[in-house]
Write a structure and sequence with these properties.
By secondary structure, the protein is α/β, with parallel strands linked by helices. It has two domains: 15-211, Rossmann fold; 225-299, 2-Layer Sandwich (Hypothetical Protein Yjia, Chain: A,domain 2). The protein is 28% helix and 25% strand. The chain contains ten helices and twelve strands. The strands form two sheets. Strands 3-2-4-1-5-6-7 form a seven-stranded parallel β-sheet, with helices on both faces. A five-stranded antiparallel β-sheet has the order 8-12-9-10-11, covered by helices on one side. Strand 2, helix 3 and strand 3 (71-75) form a beta-alpha-beta unit. The two termini are 36 Å apart. The structure holds guanosine-5'-diphosphate, magnesium ion and zinc ion.
Length: 301
């Protein structure tokens, strides 16, 4: 539906004020939730966060909520394709609030094409502040070389107003240099920041500079088709050794997996898998973290 501007003024809440929306994209495991938490930790402003996880369980939402009350979960589908209605409903909920948040950050699923979500961010009461796409400094080149993932990664780049390199502590200087030069040749003219600089300057929540012509061409929603999302039950309880063995046994082709387990003594363990990097760590505040199933994303063959 095309909404004419005068009509839009009439139905826009908050005295016509429009809340800026940042779309935060980037491939599976690029570091989106980590960056959201860093941004929230750096400000006292009321920021609403919409978190989209494609699995049946939204592990990220609980990891964000741990530090921030104002989190809306969008689970079991991707907001750019199957869950667009859920995203619209989330914006409707925000619009009904008497006091608007200062800013909305949408953590897109790792397989979402941000360009497809742009129209929602400009619905009445909201305006798109910018599309920030994270690039995993540790694994980007590998993902771009892999025919199973190259298209998804490249489509996301095209939608960006700002690119942010993450995981610089894991990447070699040579890889970072090459990643930057590949980005400059694939999507020329899009600024590239390092994640620590971007978070420090809060480039995310005050971007306010849409790239002219950015995210214009929206192709068919097909990134999702290239991925298989499975939910695997984690035995409750499970020992740390058993959980680690379960994570180690995941297929080598696994692109992303995550889940929260509980041990016989009630300790919560968080599994994080991004490609070849796999970790199981103890979650601090056990009480507030219910265990989940394991969400596993692999290429669809
Ligand atoms: N070493 C390192 N690990 C990171 C960094 N950013 C994220 N990670 C880890 O990468 C994994 C995926 O991060 P997450 O923020 O959940 O990525 P998302 O899937 O894009 O939301 C987690 O295990 C994070 O702890 C970073 O800058 N350095
Ligand atoms: Mg996340
Ligand atoms: Zn999608």
């Amino acid at each position: 539906m095309v909404v004419q501007e005068p009509y839009l003024e009439l139905i826009a809440p908050w005295d016509g004020r429009r809340v800026p929306v940042t779309l935060l994209g980037g491939y599976l495991g690029a570091g989106k939730t980590t960056v959201v938490n860093e941004v929230l930790a750096a400000t006292d402003q009321p920021i609403a966060v919409l978190v989209n996880d494609v699995g049946e369980v939204n592990v990220d939402a609980s990891l964000v909520r741990r530090r921030h009350g104002d989190t809306i979960e969008l689970t079991d589908g991707c907001v750019c394709c199957s869950l667009a209605g859920g995203l619209a409903a989330a914006f409707d909920d925000l619009r009904e609030r008497d006091v608007p948040p200062d800013h909305v950050i949408v953590e897109l699923s790792g397989i979402a094409d941000p360009a497809r979500v742009v129209p929602w961010a400009s619905s009445p009461g909201f305006s798109l502040d910018g599309v920030v796409v994270l690039v995993d400094g540790d694994q980007f080149l590998e993902r771009l070389d892999d025919p199973a993932t190259a298209d998804s990664v490249e489509t996301q780049l095209t939608a960006a107003d700002l690119l942010v390199l993450t995981k610089l502590d894991l990447a070699s200087a040579a890889d970072v240099t090459e990643t930057r030069s590949v980005l400059q040749s694939r999507v020329p003219g899009i600024p590239i920041l390092n994640s620590d600089d971007a978070v420090a300057t809060a480039s995310f929540v005050g971007l306010a500079t849409r790239r002219p012509g950015g995210a214009a061409d929206v192709g068919p929603a097909n990134l999702f088709d290239a991925h298989e999302v499975a939910t695997v039950a984690i035995p409750r309880p499970i020992t740390a050794a058993e959980f680690e063995a379960m994570i180690d046994a995941l297929e080598p082709t696994t692109l992303r997996a995550k889940g929260i387990a509980t041990t016989p003594d009630g300790t919560r363990l968080l599994a994080q898998v991004v490609g070849r990097r796999r970790s199981v760590t103890v979650l601090p505040d056990a009480e507030s973290q219910p265990p989940t199933n394991l969400v596993v994303i692999t290429p669809r063959l």
